[in-house]
Specification:
single chain, mainly alpha, about 0% strand
């Protein structure tokens, strides 16, 4: 989950100020304007739910109300402020950006997919919202269990019918700000597939010029599981931007995963 949060923070300055470039290596990751966003808050909430056996709606209400100005989408913010327990049929990428802890916490791919659905459908019960969360969770699960990039690509294409055969060089010419799962999750996975290391994965995701923090969050979550190494300077940078209660959950979750040898 750390990789997702680092991606969110590094991508945050570019969400509304696009750094669209065909040369991803040009994207600065240590931008002084960086901050955590709703992606980090709700990823932390997912981890909290798993650690403390909270239902997901309760965890998302808890953390959303702790940080109500983190940049949530309009439908989620309405759901949060109303104290609603009813989903609102969203196909937005919010279900996919918060999913990474699920992909580390369960023993089988079948369990991971089922839990990803439970996490998504408390708000994002549209089939595309559930599919986006499951595709990202599956990618992370497969990556952390040693699958190759080609195996991950083939599984996601076959299971979720996402087109992963495009190159990011082809995508960025005509890509735009897009918050749907179907319009941003495949592109985020492709960013990981084309990367050579963790930092490069989030640079590619940002360089497409879309929903930069969320796409870097998704690509970063998969890249962490695959490469198993995040540059220390990025970890230090992200830690400096997070609040103590968020760091507590992150550290608890990391400790829990180490006890499980993950």
């Amino acid at each position: 989950m750390v990789g997702a949060i680092v991606g969110d923070i590094c991508g945050s300055p570019y969400e509304w100020h696009s750094f669209k470039t065909g040369v991803p290596e040009e994207v600065p990751l240590l931008n002084e304007n960086a901050t955590f966003t709703d992606d980090s808050v709700l990823t932390t909430a997912t981890a909290d739910a798993i650690l403390n056996q909270l239902d997901y709606a309760t965890a998302y209400h808890k953390w959303g109300n702790l940080y109500p100005n983190a940049g949530y989408g309009g439908s989620f913010l309405t759901w949060l402020l109303a104290g609603s327990r009813d989903p609102y049929n969203s196909w937005g990428n919010g279900s996919a950006m918060r999913i990474s802890p699920v992909a580390w916490a369960f023993d089988t791919l079948e369990e991971t997919l089922a839990e990803a659905k439970r996490s998504a459908e408390v708000t994002h019960n549209h089939p595309e919202g559930i599919k986006g969360a499951q595709a990202v969770a599956a990618s992370i699960f497969l990556a952390r269990n040693g699958s190759s990039k080609n195996d991950i690509k083939e599984y996601v294409e076959k299971t979720f019918d996402y087109d992963l055969n495009r190159s990011t060089q082809d995508i960025w010419h005509c890509y735009y700000f897009e918050v749907s799962c179907q319009g941003s999750v495949p592109e985020s996975i492709i960013s990981f597939l084309e990367s050579r290391d963790y930092a490069h994965a989030i640079q590619i995701a940002i360089s497409l010029g879309g929903d930069s923090d969320t796409m870097a969050c998704i690509a970063g979550g998969i890249a962490e599981a695959f490469y198993r190494k995040i540059p220390q300077k990025l970890l230090n940078f992200a830690e400096s931007k997070l609040k103590d209660d968020m760091l507590d959950v992150i550290h608890q979750f990391s400790y829990f995963m180490k006890k499980l040898n993950r």
